[in-house]
Specification:
By secondary structure, this protein is α+β, with helices and mostly antiparallel strands. It has a domain at 5-165: Probable tRNA modification gtpase trme, domain 1 (Gyrase A, domain 2), CATH 3.30.1360.120. The chain has helices spanning 22-27, 78-89, 112-115, 153-160, 167-177, 214-222, 270-273, and strands spanning 5-8, 12-18, 43-48, 54-62, 68-74, 95-98, 102-108, 125-128, 131-135, 144-149, 163-164, 228-236, 245-248, 251-260, 263-269, 282-284, 287-291. The strands form three sheets. The protein has a six-stranded mixed β-sheet with strand order 8-9-10-7-1-11, sandwiched between helices. Strands 12-15-14-13-16-17 form a six-stranded antiparallel beta barrel. Strands 3-4-5-2-6 form a five-stranded antiparallel β-sheet, with helices on one face. The longest helix has 12 residues, at 78-89.
Amino acid sequence: MKQPVAVPLDHRGMLEVGGADAQQFLQGITSNDMTRVGAETAVWTGFLTPQGKFQHEFFVALSPDRESLWLDCEAGRREHLHKRLKVFKLRADVQLTPRPDLAVYALLGERALGLLDLPALEGYARPFAGGVVFVEPRLGALGARAVLPADRAAASLQEAGFAFGELADFDQQRISLGIPDGSRDLEPERATLLENGFDELHGISWDKGCFMGQELTARMKYRGLAKKRLVPVRIEGPTPEPGTSVRRGEKVAGTVRSAIDGIGLALLKLDQIDAGESAAPLHAGESTLTPRKPAWASF
């Protein structure tokens, strides 16, 4: 995509974490290192159950006034995240505030970073137009994200040189790269971080100390217990619905997650991703799937 395109991500919402203990509060309960978040750094992180299963994923950036942390999360599940975080607040000096006045955009295209004066460094952040822009912390090839005041976000991005796209443009690019998008791809209470690329996509810190759900996550990493991976698949035939079972003959091989226009993401058993040319094809309903290991993945 050569033309820089701004895609409004209406399925994402914002939650502000303020107060003197905001950073320390998130440090103890999320998978990434919150001490890295600053004026020039944003991160992507997971929030797990105590048993190590996925609950939420979100981006964390410092607000332009440097007084609070902004969480770019799923809009439809923001209330659930808000309630879950409140459980752990206890007596900490932390204020949790929904921010419907802020809008999230994905910024795509080869020239996107240049229009925003962003270097090609994953997670690099800077203030912009009353909000913040940052290079995708997961994978720089996915461009950048912007969190801006909703009432002037479109005008600010248009003035910077962006045309406007649709969610399908974002989905085409992220799916082709093998990047998950919240509960569209990670099933709450069941998914694990290592099955869904959080390690290689910079969503876990192994040096920060304990975090909620760390025991299962670390055990899966150091004992090699991950038996499935979320990978891109080429789809020949009708686009399967999310949750469609993937089979090789009569054997269940995995599950389709998000998909669009001939490509998708599927959570597949490792031994089914590269089963060899002699193996029977993978099917999801009436469609044939061909999996591909992403260049960034290390499994």
